[in-house]
Amino acid sequence: MEDPFFLAPFDTDKFRTGIIEEYKTILRPLVHQPVTLLEIGVFKGGSMMYWDSYLKHQGSRIVGIDLSVPRLEVSDRVFLHVCDQNDREGLLRIARTYQQFDLIIDDGSHRRRETQTCFEALYPFLKAGGYYVIEDWAVGYYEKSFPQFEGMIKMITDLMEQYWDWGFESYRIVREPGKAIAFFQKGTGKHPES
Asked: Structurally, how many domains does the chain consist of?
């Protein structure tokens, strides 16, 4: 049987970069379960359409946030919200509406301030065992040419160093040509005994 990750021609760079492959391990077991997914950075809506087709359970909710949102032909499981990544109160208002997320994806501005604001506001709404994902963090390597991306590498390394502070179960950092994605899995809140 063909993998549905590669069957759909959705307008999202997640296929071109190969990032979609990185989602396999966490999403495959959840395809037929009710999943609440939040993605920051809707752009043209290709990934919203993809998640809507890939996640099969009718109880799933696919939530998108961006500065502006496109009109999409999607099911009633997709909810789009206009919100700036630096609007902490707006982010919290949206998060409280859905209460908890299984997966939060930040594919927004790829700037440190916005990325950090989203992480700090939204990570508490991630379920234990869920994943907070930061895409395209490697833009920080180009901060001399593109100063708007300054600090992204440091943010990722800071999160790794703050492993216990945030209560991560695990993390996985991927950096390959054309692909940079960081997965932070939320733990149960219990530290293993020393």
From this structure: 1
Q: For 1-5, 70-74, 128-132, 140-144, which range has the lowest pLDDT when averaged over its residues?
A: 1-5
Q: Encoding tokens for residue 7?
A: 């069957």
Domain that holds residue 179: 4-186
In this prediction the pTM is 0.91
Confirm whether 143 is domain-assigned. Answer: yes
Annotation marks residue 110 as catalytic: yes
CATH number at residue 57: 3.40.50.150
The token pair at 119 is 């992480």
| 8 Å CB contact between 111 and 118 | no
Residue at 193 is within a domain: no
- Pick from 125, 131, 78: nearest CA to 100: 125
Active-site annotation holder among 32, 57, 110, 191: 110
Q: Which residues pair with 36 in a beta bridge?
A: 61
